[in-house]
Design goal:
The chain is an alpha/beta fold and 320 residues long. The chain has twelve helices and 15 strands. The protein folds into three domains: 129 residues, D-Maltodextrin-Binding Protein, domain 2; 74 residues, 3-Layer(aba) Sandwich (D-Maltodextrin-Binding Protein, domain 2), CATH 3.40.190.10; 81 residues, 2-Layer Sandwich (Alpha-Beta Plaits). A hairpin with a 7-residue loop joins strand 13 and strand 14. The longest helix has 26 residues. The relative contact order is 0.14.
Length: 320
């Protein structure tokens, strides 16, 4: 049996175990079932939905996506690492995982284009979010004076570029797929260092040469919890939309006025080019409120009449 077959067998066995737990829960907690209806943390914690209940995230283990998934769901037994953001979407789309965790915005570098592009290709629900403070650390098994190469993923290097210029100006910066891969390389190669988490230092027996080397001490990444659930209002919600309006004067301004006229506050707006259509854009917006709120619902219904495309990506509780 090859490793891939073994991993699939283990995942199927976990799903069967979940089903056994679900049957037991349903026999004793029938009164609880009606009250959940779509809160990802509650559904995951109680195991009241099956086929399957796993969570896909951009791996490997000890990546920042892993930390975000652990923070939101609280357990790691059913967290499933995949190799790319696109693979997270595919896992959820195909039903191989109930939820996915994807980065959507960083406070230093801004939007995560790969995530936004996947929403364009395969719109899926956002049913939650989690904010993760990002503290980068310089990990190595040699003194800082002996470091000749610094490995990390491009975003981590970007978020530490000023520190690196001041303290390691002569060190070569080498981009790799993940901070975890960087830690593995730093463990094996003399004169190398990684920009990664404290957990990665512990996992790969590396010394923390310098802590918190990010240029912005308030550096944080916002992660979206994607799935097929429709959370009910929590009292502190936001709604995400993806839309395209005609390429003509005033079209975007008219769309924005619909939210102003309904007293809806826009908290985030980003644009991404429409493939194959120069100078035309998709717009991502986040709004205060839940789709069940009458004023927001009215604004969205009005936008439908003006938009070439409108995807309601989801209403969900604001992250913390």
């Amino acid at each position: 049996m090859n490793s891939s077959t073994s991993e699939n067998t283990e995942r199927l066995e976990k799903i069967r175990e979940i089903d056994r737990r679900i049957e037991e829960l349903l026999s004793h907690r029938g009164e609880v079932v009606a009250g959940l209806r779509g809160d990802p943390k509650e559904i995951f914690a109680l195991g009241l939905q099956s086929h399957p209940i796993g969570v896909a995230y951009l791996g490997p283990q000890h990546s920042y996506s892993y930390a975000a998934a652990s923070k939101y769901f609280g357990v790691s037994e059913f967290l499933h690492p995949v190799s790319s953001i696109s693979a997270v979407f595919e896992e959820v789309q195909r039903g191989q995982s109930r939820y996915g965790v994807v980065p959507i915005e960083n406070s230093t570098d801004g939007r995560i284009v790969d995530t936004m592009s996947n929403f364009i290709r395969s719109p899926i629900q956002i049913c939650g979010e989690v904010l993760l403070p990002i503290h980068h650390n310089l990990l190595s098994n040699c003194p800082r004076s002996e470091i000749r190469k610094v490995y990390s993923k491009p975003q981590a290097i970007s978020q530490c570029r000023r520190w690196l210029s001041e303290h390691l100006p002569d060190a070569q910066r080498v981009e790799v797929a993940s901070t975890t891969e960087a830690a593995k390389i730093a463990r094996e190669q003399p004169g190398s260092a990684a920009i990664a988490s404290v957990q990665a230092a512990q996992e790969y027996s590396l010394l923390i040469v310098c802590k918190s080397i990010e240029d912005d001490p308030n550096n944080a990444t916002r992660f979206a919890i994607i799935g097929k659930d429709y959370p009910r209002p929590s009292g502190n919600d936001k709604t995400s939309l993806l839309f395209q309006v005609p390429h003509q004067p005033g079209a975007l301004a008219d769309a924005m006025l619909l939210f102003r006229d309904n007293q809806i506050n826009l908290t985030w707006i980003e644009s991404l080019p429409v493939p194959g259509a120069p100078n035309e854009y998709f717009f991502f917006v986040e709004l205060d409120g839940h789709i069940e709120q009458s004023s927001l619902n009215h604004a969205i219904e009005s936008l439908k009449l003006r938009a070439l495309r409108l995807d309601i990506l989801g209403s969900y509780a604001r992250g913390s």
